[in-house]
Every structure is written in C-alpha cells, then in structure tokens.
Design a protein that fits this description.
The complex is a heterodimer of chains A (72) and B (135). By secondary structure, chain A is mostly helical. Chain A contains 3 helices and no strands. Chain B contains 7 helices and 5 strands, in the order βααβααβααβαβ. The chains are: A mainly alpha (72), B alpha/beta (135). At the A-B interface, α2 and α3 of A face α2 and α4 of B.
C-alpha cells in the first residue's frame, strides 16, 4: 500500500507514553492503526445513516435485543 | 471491551437491509467497536459487486480477518472435535475465539456446538436472540 509523509501535531505526554511501548519505529504503525479504526467507524456511521434514510430508525425493541446480548 | 465478529448471516442481513443486522452495527459503532469478518464469510456472501452495493459498503466498514495457517490448524482441530461442523463455521469460530470477540451468528446451534465441543471460551450471540456464554 502506498504511504505518505505528513507533518502532524501531537500531544507530547501522549506520544511519550506511547513510545514506551510501541517504540520509535512503531509510532507510524500505531498512528496508522488508530486512523484506520476511525475511518472504519465513520464508514459504519455513513452506512447506518443511509440505512435509516431508507428504512427509518431502528426500533427500540430490536436494539434492546442487541443490548441484552452485548458483551460485558 | 470485547469486540464482535460477524458471520455470513450478519453480512447477508446487512446486504438485505435486515433490521437486526443494522442494530448490531449500530451498537458497535456507538461503542467504538469495528466488527471483524473472516475472509471465508466474505467468500460465502460475495457474488456480484455490481448487485451488492450495500454489502460492499459494509465490508469497507469492517476489519477483514485473513485465514493464516495457524488459524486453519485451529479450525481443523475443532473439526476433529465436532465432526458435524462445517469447515467455514469452524474457521469463523476459530477467528472469533482467537481474537476473544463475541461471535454474532444467524446459526447459533452449530456455533454453540463448536463452542461447547472445542472453543470453550467462545461466546456466541444470536443475530436476534439472547447471549449464551460457555465459560
């Protein structure tokens, strides 16, 4: 996969703590993984918005069925 | 927080606009969980991209888990313990068990047999039903 270099501004304390367990060489990967997670969640939100635009909101009863099974 | 693995039935539900499938996706997104899907579940459901726009969008919102040799061996061991299980189900169950995620399935009877017979820590949730832990 193609990669790109970007200059970003990060919280110093957060970076210091992260470097302790990902290392200098692992920082790009950790940031990439975090970005991927955010992008996938946003795609999920967009998919849900499209579903609700077509079908209306999901019923409280159906959501309650999921909640009853949601892992603790 | 435990993650979720969706089986083929959930993918089919998303493709067909099934409310239960979208309810699982809703709660996952609200709680910051990206659902996982085995590449074998993709193979079971993907037929024609031109006619499966919703499935295509759904897959782009999920983490796709490849089947590597170690996972294949785990699935094979499960098949030895639960002879009635299908290879695809065994692989999907192995994938969920390895990641420690809850397996959301439209086929809870077969998946629970795999949990009881081999993947003892695997938790199985019905696409529409109640959670049953095996621990």
């Amino acid at each position: 996969m193609a990669t790109v270099k970007r200059s970003v501004t990060l919280d110093q304390e957060l970076v210091d703590e992260a470097l302790a367990f990902v290392g200098e060489r692992g920082l790009s990967r950790a940031l990439n993984d975090g970005l991927r997670h955010q992008v996938l969640l946003e795609r999920g939100r967009q998919l849900l918005a499209a579903y609700e635009a077509e079908h209306g909101p999901i019923s409280a009863e159906t959501l309650a069925t999921v909640d009853a099974q949601w892992p603790a | 927080m435990a993650g979720l693995t969706f089986d083929s039935a959930v993918l089919i539900g998303l493709e067909r606009g099934d409310e239960a499938a979208y309810a699982w996706l809703t709660r996952a997104v609200e709680r910051g969980a990206v659902p996982c899907v085995s590449t074998l579940a993709v193979a079971e459901t993907w037929r024609d991209g031109a006619r499966q726009a919703r499935l295509s969008r759904a897959l782009k919102a999920m983490a796709i888990e490849p089947v590597d040799e170690e996972l294949a061996r785990r699935a094979g061991a499960a098949l030895a313990a639960v002879a009635s299980a299908s290879t695809v189900d065994a692989v999907i169950a192995a994938s969920a068990a390895r990641s420690g995620s809850v397996l959301v399935t439209g086929d809870p009877v077969d998946m629970r047999q795999l949990a009881l017979g081999h993947f003892r820590t695997l938790r199985v949730a019905e696409l529409a039903g109640e959670l049953e832990g095996t621990e």
